[in-house]
Specification:
Layout: E1 2-12, E2 15-21, H1 36-44, E3 49-55, E4 65-70, H2 72-99, H3 103-127, H4 129-135, E5 138-142
Antiparallel strand pairs: 1-2, 1-4, 2-3, 4-5
Length: 161
Amino acid sequence: MIEQQATVIAVADGSALVEVQRQTGCSACGVGDRCGTSVLAKLFGSGASARLRVADRIGLVPGEAVLIGIRSDTLARASLAAYLLPLIAMIGAAFFADQAGLGDAGAAGLGLAGLLLGLGVTGFLTGGTGAKARFRPVLLRRLSAARPIVTLDPVHPAVGG
């Protein structure tokens, strides 16, 4: 199970919207922000945090710290679908074009078509309602009680309110 700490942003209809701070590196080595993973995260990331929806079965409130997770095998399957399937489709289509004698331009064109087809199939496999639920992280446990966002002192009766 791959786990990540998150903060509850909102709760509604049996689910919670949580915010996860993005990590720019995997912390597996001392390279830090010079790592290729870090560079890609900076180029293609959409900010310092990501918001995800998880099923709330324990009665969360905004401001709580929680632990969410996704099964390792689920993450591995999603990664294979996202990276390997389009690549295999592209190489297969380019190989087919080469065997058919379509030349370099034909192999490049058919390879690009295979890549787009592979991306479309990947989107179909990972984008449907059932697939999204399969790849959605789950709430593992509450880490801390909610911190009050604003605390108000009681109004004194003589002042009115």
